[in-house]
Design goal:
DNA polymerase, domain 1, 8 strands, about 290 residues, alpha/beta, Ubiquitin-like (UB roll), rod-shaped, 3-stranded mixed beta sheet, about 10% strand
Length: about 290
């Protein structure tokens, strides 16, 4: 025999439904207290289990959390503060290279220069170091007559463009003296002057004019270079006295003097044969007119 099913009593459970706060018409604000909820079946009043204050606090906390999570704008200069671009970068690179090159050139030119010491040997063989405290070769010479003369003064006369005194360096030739006087006039032969001869200080050079014949000495007056009997001393005769000999002109007379100076004088009359321009025939003419 089956039992009849037991019917359990029906109990109405409260239903909690969250209700949004209502805007008050009097104050214009939302109600914060619990609000009545619609009646549940059975006449039970359901209240809001989550008060508005709790929801408000949670919303504020969430807002604060969101505010903290949002990064504050950085005050540091970013890429947008100064962006020269590709062209600007190239210009800056070129400027930097130019600055480096200019600095390198300036440093190279500003480096200390090393100058070599030039040693010059003076006329006396003493090296000249450039120090004024060290006496040079010229200062060490005590005899003024031993100092070589730097220039000579000669007189050029005759058929030249500018006759007069000319200054020449020591060791100059007759050709240099004639050139310093402007040169010989057209048609004048200077070969008889021996252009290669060295001039001496105070010498007279006559161009294009025959040498004057020396006047006969007065009786009782000794002529330098002459010996009793009318002979000419080859070791003491002047250019004019040698030029006055037969067959001897100014060129040959100058050669005789140069030969005498180079050899230290004639030791015998026969030494005339060693002079260029005196052959056997001319020697025969002169041997009885000269002496040593």
């Amino acid at each position: 025999m089956r039992r009849a099913p037991v019917e359990w009593p029906t109990v109405a459970l409260p239903v909690h439904t969250p209700v949004a706060p209502e805007l008050s018409s009097d104050t214009g604000t939302y109600a914060t207290g619990p609000q009545p909820s619609p009646s549940a079946p059975g006449g039970t009043v359901v209240t809001d289990p989550y008060p508005a204050a709790a929801r408000t606090g949670r919303s504020s906390a969430e807002a604060q959390t969101n505010a903290d999570a949002t990064p504050a704008p950085s005050r540091l200069p970013g890429p947008g503060a100064f962006d020269p671009g590709r062209r600007g970068v190239r210009v800056l690179a070129v400027v930097a290279i130019l600055v480096v090159v200019v600095a390198a050139v300036w440093a190279w030119r500003s480096r200390p220069q090393v100058e070599p010491v030039v040693t010059v040997t003076g006329p006396s063989g003493v090296a000249d170091t450039g120090d004024p405290s060290v006496p040079t070769g010229d200062e060490q010479v005590t005899d003024p007559s031993a100092v070589p003369v730097g220039e000579v003064v000669v007189a050029v006369a005759g058929k030249v463009r500018r006759p007069g005194l000319v200054r020449l360096p020591a060791g100059a030739r007759v050709a240099d003296a004639v050139e310093a006087a402007g040169g010989a006039l057209p048609g004048v032969d200077v070969a008889m002057l021996n252009p290669a001869r060295k001039v001496t200080d105070g010498e007279l050079i006559v161009v294009g004019v025959p040498a004057p014949t020396p006047a006969a000495p007065a009786p009782g007056v000794a002529v330098p270079g002459a010996v009793p009997g009318g002979r000419v001393n080859l070791n003491t005769a002047t250019l004019a006295q040698l030029d006055a000999l037969p067959g001897v002109g100014p060129v040959l007379a100058q050669r005789i003097i140069e030969h005498r100076d180079q050899r230290g004088g004639f030791r015998a009359v026969s030494d005339l044969r060693q002079v260029n321009g005196i052959g056997d025939a001319r020697y025969e003419e002169l041997k009885d007119l000269v002496t040593v």
